[in-house]
Amino acid sequence: MNLTIESVRLTPILVADPPLLNTQGVHQPYTPRLIIEVETADGITGIGETYGDTKYLELAQPFAEKLKGRQASDLNGLFGVADEVAVDASRVSGQVDVGGLRGVQTADKLRLSVVSGFEVACLDALGKALGLPVHTLLGGKVRDAVEYSAYLFYRWAGHPEGVPCEKDDWGAAVDPAGVVEQARKFKERYGFTSFKLKGGVFAPEEEIAAVRALAEAFPGHPLRLDPNGAWSVETSLKVAEELGDVLEYLEDPALGTPAMAEVAARTGVPLATNMCVTTFAEIKEAFTRDAVQVVLSDHHYWGGLRNTQQLAAICRTFGVGVSMHSNTHLGISLAAMTHVASTVPNLHHACDSHYPWQSEDVLTERMTFESGKVAVSDLPGLGVELDHDKLRFLHRRWLDDDGTLKDRDDAAAMRVADPDWTTPPVPRW
Ligand SMILES: [Mg+2]
């Protein structure tokens, strides 16, 4: 068996994205992703997926060059390779990363987001070479299916008039009735039984009313609300008090560990985060101050599937819960998320996934949810296959774009509908 990496193909694509609203603005009609193919000397190809914005492509290209001649099994070595790739300082804002609201942008996080795509591709290749599923390479699954939650969004029926886009049949959701209707569709189509609402879009009273309406329509179902740090400590406490009896947890009500710690100290409602604990370096302060009760891992920016397992082990040590964050992603990432989630013993909350919102994919067969769960594949590697025609089609769209969509910018997308829109200051309420 020859696991030497002979070639690496990077294919940036643009995939359709519905007009989902968040505190920064609205999703663009198409969002960038990067598809990674790693081919070994034996002709085995492993696939991976990560963010596709320019700053990631700039890192992925030199990274890919350095991989040639290395072993696909040398997963630990990927981090050393990443350290050798220079990050353009202008790409590191020190501000909250706009696309997906996943904490402060740093050079390390940029690097780890690139590593993750290659790590998944190498694991896929290794699994295919050995005839073993990725979960076996990660130590073995402890469950046969992974539960996901319905990821509810306030949204418009379609993108603004005149914007080229794909259409869908979800309809608008801009009030409690619309949110409940969307949740019903999620339950009918995918069998989800826990619901997360992306908040920070309307005034807290309106979002409280939406969660109340969900609680009434789906009694006993776990509910979550995530305003992406848009609230002050006092507003967070008010929402916690009003919804404490129906929330499974409140996700990033306030921005940053100090604010989260203050909220946590004054409410019994568990707090979850994918914004103040997004790197290993941020764990110590947050856990010492008891600022969060659930960490939402994301293998993309934590640096891969094995780092996700390490994060889960640290959470277990400190009695902190663990679940999974999601950004716009395709089936390769859903497969990767499912493999790693199947190996985490202390996964006690349904994972988030945007996947139902993505009408397009690069797989020969779409991933499916049964009763809100994705079955863990026992096929070699990730257990999914790349459809090269679909990949070419989505890459063509990326090539044809004049540059406006190659970097995700939810505020710019909102300005198409509202020319005066600027990213609101935090806390917004
Ligand atoms: Mg979140």
UniProtKB/TrEMBL annotation:
Domain Mandelate racemase/muconate lactonizing enzyme C-terminal intervals: 176-270
Residue positions binding substrate: 27, 106, 151, 196, 226-228, 274, 325-327, 354, 408
Reactions performed catalytically: D-glucarate = 5-dehydro-4-deoxy-D-glucarate + H2O
Keyword terms, alphabetized: Lyase, Magnesium, Metal-binding
Keyword Ubl conjugation: no
Record's keyword annotation contains Amino-acid biosynthesis: no
One Pfam family linked to the record: MR_MLE_N
Protein name: glucarate dehydratase
Native source species: Streptomyces brasiliensis
Classification of source organism: Bacteria, Bacillati, Actinomycetota, Actinomycetes, Kitasatosporales
